[in-house]
Automatic annotation (TrEMBL):
SUPFAM superfamilies: Ribonuclease H-like
Protein name per the record: Integrase core domain-containing protein
Gene3D superfamilies: Ribonuclease H-like superfamily/Ribonuclease H
InterPro entries: RNaseH-like_sf, RNaseH_sf
Amino acid sequence: MNWRIEENESFEFATELMDEAITKEDVDPDQLTIHADNGASMAPQSVGEVLATLGVRKSHLRPHTSNDNPYSQAQFKTLKYRGDFPERFETIEEAREFFAKFLLETLD
């Protein structure tokens, strides 16, 4: 697993994230498929372009169908319904700390 939280999306951040994940997990990029919603971050000029450059396939949700990736959806719901999930993160560091703790707990 690899993740990061940044103040904005960029080709550079996405490339670093995917390169780190591929190296860390020791997999060939052509073995990977990234499943995403149909949001703007997967547009051709951003993360979608990074994935294509690295040879990683991408798949998308069907329009108006939020349950195409039930594992991911369940994790988001678990996260949002936690009693300690803040209404707002005051700093990016606070968000990073919260998610690091959450992800470590879910992997145990």
